[in-house]
Amino acid sequence: MSYALAVVLGAAFLAPTVATAQPGAGAPAADPYQVLVFSKTAGFRHDSIPAGIAEVQALGAANGFAVTATEDATVLTPANLAQYKAVVFVSTTGDFLDNTQEAALEGYVDGGGGFMGIHAAADAEYESPAYEQLVGAWFKSHPAIQQATVVNEDVTNPATSHFGPTWTHTDELYNYRSNPRADVHVLQSLDESSYTGGEMSGDHPITWCHAQGTGRSFYTGLGHTAESYADPDFQKLLLGGIEYAAGVVEADCSVPGGGDQPASVEAESYTSSSGVEPAGHGAASGGQTLGFIDNGDWAGYASVDTAGATSFSAKVSSAGAGGTIQVRSGSATGTLLGSVNVANTGDWETFTTVSTPLTAGTGPLFLSFTGGSGSLFDIDSFSLS
Fold first, then answer.
1. Nearest CA to 155 among 169, 166, 168?
2. What's the pTM?
3. What is the per-residue pLDDT across 69-93, written as a single tens digit (0 to 9) for each?
């Protein structure tokens, strides 16, 4: 796909901003670490992107990190990403990464790097379940810009420790295609009774974090307006998110299932695979399954740790040959922790739950599939306990 040339953004490119004291300003000087800011768009382009980049640069100058800003997706290679402690996506939209670039980003985070997404970073890469897992949820819709009450659910996190129980903020307030709460650590949510147009049935996460592999991910749906980036409270939120993603501050980003892995995993949210693809099914959670599973195929889940797991269960369907799910750790041919047979359920929209005990494992989860010829079965979701 086409891409814009790299742009290192300086004063000549950026719109003037009102000078404000930056969070952390006056802290002792230290060797700066590197942060990459990426703002390529292949869809709607936000007017606030220059203000967002300028604010990250200002935060870096005041807090000991150096910022490289670009819209050149070719910089997303394993070798180049290795120099950065965090990558910040500022309102990126559309399908702007090819498969190689996407794999490089996922590998970077899974291998210990940090990702931060701001606002429209959730409005991107809709063909990639792995990207949805990295960000936490995909954008669905939004009402008009308006004031709302933000509920600060965790004020122990460095990104939200400056807040009281609530915060009144004006922004474009995203609805998401799914509720990420089961798979992330929610820091802030929206009080849907305080504004019009909320569509998350009263449980509306807007800022969250989670571990991914040995790396870290932080996302906030706020930041549509240029004015947001001049708000000291939002500036502190951004700084805390960047520093968490970069791994320079500690934060509790554990998820509801305990530890740092989701209680339930959408099977189509794999981070690596061979042969399989997402398949649309109306009866499935989120409308998709892990599908097109043939003998010898596999799927890997870098953010799902097998350590301490003693059982595996999966919601499955089959109108095909059926087969076996092998639960492995470390790789598609890694240590076999357990296996479970999947029988024909009558049709692809009829789901049942299968389960198996597991022996002790270490490392990320991989599911390998065996069976006869043709499509074997689909997996909607699974869990470890």
1. 166
2. 0.65
3. 999 999 999 999 999 999 999 999 9
